[in-house]
Design goal:
alpha+beta, two-stranded parallel ribbon
Length: 70
């Protein structure tokens, strides 16, 4: 399934991206599937570590949840 190319005016889109080389779900892929061409969305790159741990695919959920809450 391909993501849409643009969004409706009343929709806000935020993409949180892990660092491909640190994310076990993506690091062995030839290209980064997180890189998409989506007009009008905001991209937030995640840091290398979270609470002293490598910030990969699983920990990214906790990181984003904390960012949204606080």
């Amino acid at each position: 399934m391909m993501p849409p190319k643009q969004k409706s005016k009343n929709v806000k889109s935020v993409q949180w991206r892990t660092i491909k080389t640190l994310d076990n779900a993506f690091k062995d892929l030839s290209s980064d599937p997180q890189l998409i061409n989506f007009k009008g969305h905001e991209v937030r790159d995640l840091p290398e570590k979270y609470k002293g741990k490598r910030l990969g695919h699983n920990w990214s959920v906790s990181y984003v949840a904390d960012e949204i809450i606080f």
